Amino acid sequence: MFIKFTKMQGTGNDFIMLDQFASEQIELSKEQIRFLCDRKFGIGADGLIILRDSETSEFEMIYYNADGLLSTMCGNGGRCIVKLAYDNRYIDENTYFHAPDGTHKASIESDIISLHMKDVDTVTSVNDCYILNSGSPHYVKFVNDLDFLDVHFEGAKIRNSEAFKKDGINVNFIEILNDNEFKVRTYERGVEAETLSCGTGVTAAAIAAHVKTGRLTNKWNIITKGGPLKVEFNANGDNFSKIILIGLAETVFEGKISLID
What we know:
CATH topology of the largest domain: Diaminopimelate Epimerase, Chain A, domain 1
CATH architecture of the largest domain: Roll
Shape: globular
Number of helices: 4
Strand content: 35-45%
CATH superfamily of the largest domain: Diaminopimelate Epimerase, Chain A, domain 1
Order of helices and strands: EEHEEHEEEEEEHEEEHEEEE
CATH class of the largest domain: Alpha Beta
Number of strands: 17
Helix content: 10-25%
Radius of gyration: 18 Å
């Protein structure tokens, strides 16, 4: 069996996109998804995303991690699926869609996607680090000399600790640069490695930076290894609303691949 796919990336966070909006819905096994995401034997990606029609919104986003398991919200993947739906003429410049964590609004202008994220109403401080859910669960730790940190080792240690090993958690390391800019690197559960960028991760990091610094800024410029992102929000104590993740999403290539049943 051959399947068509589109390879996309949002600041280096890359995805295999399957457009099933107006075609047969193919159910993939965990092993097949792992094969497709494998960078040696398959296409290679941090995750796989399925675009489907929806009765309650303009389209639906179904997201699998590279380990083949259904996952929670992916911010960069959300931006990519908006770009795919727009390029395939399913939506206009403004849209709303259903994702694993609920309904999201989004807009597109010159390949820049502005994605409205879920509200955050709980930020927990543990040992001067922060835990919150921005669509997926995140742990945020502030560090110095981020460029020299062994993110894979340190991230895996926290992700597999007694507190988080059952359900997993994404681990973000952040270095504040100035009043409205920081660098962040993320170890992602499901990928079990550092990715070049994580959309829900930079969202969580921006909120944690606001809480940590006590600064009034609610607009952050973010430097990831895969490129720049922006996060904006309204803040009222520990309640964060109108959270918007802003950045580029691009198609890398399209193709077909043979898939063993």
